[in-house]
């Protein structure tokens, strides 16, 4: 064969691609140009990159996360748009199980750095999705975007009891990498950061494992580090009317470039694990309003039994967050557990990296979180230490499009 095909490309092709590679270079070249898309029914498949909406939002939640927030260091608009075009092209390749660079991971002149860092060679696509968002700080006077800042991208209010650390909050641009293999997710972020050298710097990042929400009815409900099923009543991709009304931004919302996009809120919530573990089962269940074993709402037997708010305590977490208490406001949650080692006293630095998508945080996340911050007894066991909000534009339509093109048009 006259051209190098990396093991990662071969895995991205699937069995048909491997057979074609053995049959001849012409067939292999054709398959590499248009790799087949597997709808990630297994943990090794690939989700489509191009579409009306960005992948990684209603996509069935994968098992691993690498989330990063960047600060833009260039002050030249054309350099920023050029970077977004480079990132988009790399993301289109990476999500299909290919290398970050067009020339291949070990291609190009030996005197130059390779186009891909190489740690994902031999690994399949693993359901990788890459989702980009723009923070409010990007809409300052550097790039002429101030007038295009959506009203829904308003600064979050200060919530009672929060102890935010500025160094791990905010950011100009975020990228959410989700995959079933942590090395695939880390590889993707590492290569985007490498491509962005000299134009962006990493402000903060977060690794996550063990999804804490289901975004499809085909998925079982996972558990958070407090041991409770999390996200039983989460909005699901199959809820067509709810998704249209509560998740996707529309042109009539006031920012036409965001039509088909969504607003992302992140919160790093540290849990005082050791204190929680010494709390009685009855108190734990009263705090959540659910049975710990089955996940059934108070007074019921099964997880998906209808919630009876009157059967639980007035300040139960489920009751305070329920849509009926907030003008039918829903969130699409797709958060992750995290463990960042331990502190100097031997206590786990662990908790929930909360991720929620919605049409307008002012009507959805803000009222729900304000109610929880003021009244939720769970606050005795948690503290919010970081926060971010980002406008995630619509999807990339084809190879001639790029992340955020509508914003910069």
Automatic annotation (TrEMBL):
Residues 99-119, 212-231 are annotated as: Disordered. Its cofactor is heme b. The keyword Heme applies. Pfam families: Dyp_perox_C (PF20628), Dyp_perox_N (PF04261). It is found in: Cell envelope. Residues 221-396 form the Dyp-type peroxidase C-terminal domain. Binds 1 heme b (iron(II)-protoporphyrin IX) group non-covalently per subunit. Keywords: Heme, Iron, Lyase, Metal-binding, Oxidoreductase, Peroxidase, Signal. Transmembrane segments: none annotated. It catalyses: heme b + 2 H(+) = protoporphyrin IX + Fe(2+). Signal peptide: none annotated. Its EC number is 1.11.1.-. Residues 212-223 have a biased composition (Polar residues). GO terms for cellular component: cell envelope; cytosol. GO terms for biological process: iron import into cell. GO terms for molecular function: ferrochelatase activity; heme binding; metal ion binding; peroxidase activity. Residues 54-209 form the Dyp-type peroxidase N-terminal domain. Involved in the recovery of exogenous heme iron. Extracts iron from heme while preserving the protoporphyrin ring intact. PANTHER family: DEFERROCHELATASE, DEFERROCHELATASE/PEROXIDASE. NCBIfam families: Dyp_perox_fam, tat_substr_1. Belongs to the DyP-type peroxidase family. This is Deferrochelatase. The lineage of its organism: Bacteria, Bacillati, Actinomycetota, Actinomycetes, Streptosporangiales.
């Amino acid at each position: 064969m006259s051209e190098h095909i990396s093991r990662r490309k071969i895995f991205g092709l699937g069995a048909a691609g491997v057979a074609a590679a053995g049959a001849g270079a012409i067939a292999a070249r054709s398959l590499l140009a248009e790799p087949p898309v597997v709808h990630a029914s297994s943990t090794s498949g690939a989700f489509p990159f191009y579409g009306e909406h960005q992948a990684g939002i209603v996509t069935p939640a994968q098992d691993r996360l690498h989330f990063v927030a960047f600060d833009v260091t260039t002050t030249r608009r054309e350099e920023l748009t050029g970077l977004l075009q480079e990132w988009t092209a790399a993301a289109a390749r990476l999500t299909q199980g290919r290398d970050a660079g067009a020339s291949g991971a070990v291609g190009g002149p030996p005197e130059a750095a390779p186009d891909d860092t190489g740690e994902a060679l031999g690994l399949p696509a693993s359901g990788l999705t890459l989702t980009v968002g723009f923070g409010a700080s990007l809409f300052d006077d550097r790039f002429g975007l101030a007038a295009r800042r959506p009203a829904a991208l308003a600064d979050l209010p200060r919530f009672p009891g929060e102890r935010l650390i500025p160094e791990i909050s905010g950011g100009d641009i975020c990228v959410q990498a989700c995959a079933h293999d942590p090395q695939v997710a880390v590889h993707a972020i590492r290569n985007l950061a490498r491509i962005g050298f000299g134009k962006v710097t990493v402000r903060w990042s977060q690794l996550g494992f063990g999804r804490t929400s289901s975004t499809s009815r085909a998925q079982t409900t996972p558990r958070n580090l407090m041991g409770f099923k999390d996200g039983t009543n989460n909005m699901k991709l199959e809820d067509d009317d709810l998704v249209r009304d509560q998740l996707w931004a529309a042109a009539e919302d006031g920012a036409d470039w965001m039509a088909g996009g969504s607003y992302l809120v992140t919160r790093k919530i540290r849990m005082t694990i050791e204190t929680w573990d010494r709390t009685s089962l009855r108190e734990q269940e009263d705090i959540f309003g659910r049975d710990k074993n089955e996940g059934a709402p108070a007074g019921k037997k099964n997880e998906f039994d209808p919630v009876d708010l009157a059967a639980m305590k007035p300040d139960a977490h489920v009751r305070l967050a329920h849509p009926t208490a907030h003008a039918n406001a829903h969130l699409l949650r797709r958060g992750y557990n995290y463990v960042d080692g331990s502190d100097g006293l031997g206590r786990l630095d662990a908790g929930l990296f909360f991720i929620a998508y919605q049409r307008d945080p002012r009507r959805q996340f803000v009222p729900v979180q304000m109610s929880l911050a003021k009244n939720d007894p769970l606050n005795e066991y948690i503290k919010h230490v970081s926060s971010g909000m980002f406008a995630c534009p619509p999807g990339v339509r084809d190879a001639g499009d790029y992340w955020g093109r509508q914003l910069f048009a």
